[in-house]
Amino acid sequence: MMPKIVPEYKEEAKRRIVEAGLEVMYDKGYCKTTMDDIAKRLDVTKPALYRYFKNKDELIIESAKILQEQYRRINTPRGPDICPVEVWIETFDQMLSPNLNEHALLFEIFAMTVREPVLREFSVERMKQGIEYPAQAIAKRQEKGQVTEMTDPRTLAIAFVALFNGMRVMYLLGVERDELRSRWIEIIKALFKVRTECHVDCPKYEVCHITAVQNNIEK
Questions:
Q1: What is the pTM of this model?
Q2: Pair 150, 200 in one domain
């Protein structure tokens, strides 16, 4: 049963509706999802949903915000001594979920930003942050001599974002995730100056070296 509409329960009720909405949209996509579907997932009546959201578009905007915030909270290794390759491998592993429906929904949301001003404003701001944060991190790596200084940090940050979203598309279109991950590692290693004396205690030591060997054999 949905909580009553009192101040202390309103936000909790909205959160539950949004979570249920995302679950349904993962399965059916945004276009095929109806408010009836979401109401059934929660075992409530459709009018109960309209107490919190005027329509599906309002609900999807809130869902999009939550979905994008989840990506913003991705946890990757931190600290000046962490190998930059390890950081970007962890980023790939956490962001390229094996769930194809999740990526499909995200692209549907991307497309909606063209016609939905509120969602566009929110998404544009998140994209700015999504470029600025890695650009700052790359600049710090350049100061330590861990990243090539031939290209400016913002260019590399945009390249990473574009590359990753391109890999999302390839994953949706049938390219195996393992291959994408392998190529991602090789690209990262090509852009970063990986020390030849990389220590075996590094969590990604074996991954980097095995991937390099495998790709050399393929060549």
A1: 0.74
A2: yes
